[in-house]
Amino acid sequence: ILFLICNPKDVATSFYHFSNGLVILPSYKTWDDFFTDFMTKKMVWGCYFEYLSKRNKYADEENVMTITYEELKENRVLGVKKIAAFLGLSLTEEEVQLVVERSSFQSMKKNSQNTHGAFGNILFRKGGVSDWKNLFSEDQNEKMDKAFEEYVGGTKLGTKLKYEVYCK
């Protein structure tokens, strides 16, 4: 099982834009309204912190590899090699480069009309990290950090996220 996790602040930011772009989900007039719902567990798919917390119990199983989006963005070649090794795949350098090229955000966004139709424009917005800094107030940042510590701060997944997001 390959378990991809992401900075909760970027998850919230992406979900805010996703919600406002998809008519079947509740849309939000303001970021503040969305943030309140996100932090009070009123999201359609539940609470991201509870999701991470529940999955943490599987983090040490040998058939589970956890990798962060931030880690993949920082070094896709190394990420692909780690994933291939975990899956027991032997890839040539050419194959690694092909996977890196085809799995880049830019490549997937460019091909999204073919792979996802009109839904592609909603799924593939920016693909970056730290976009949360464009929305979060200082108070919201502190509230998110507090919730992170409460739910997953001392867990294996929390430690991995904290390292990838805050320590690099």
UniProtKB/TrEMBL annotation:
Any Pfam family hit: Sulfotransfer_1
Domain named Sulfotransferase: residues: 1-155
One MF annotation (Gene Ontology) recorded for this entry: sulfotransferase activity
Keyword terms: Transferase
Name of the gene: Sult6b1_1
Enzyme Commission number: 2.8.2.-
Keyword Transferase: yes
Descriptive protein name: Sulfotransferase
Annotated InterPro entries: P-loop_NTPase (IPR027417), Sulfotransferase_dom (IPR000863)
Coiled-coil residue windows: none
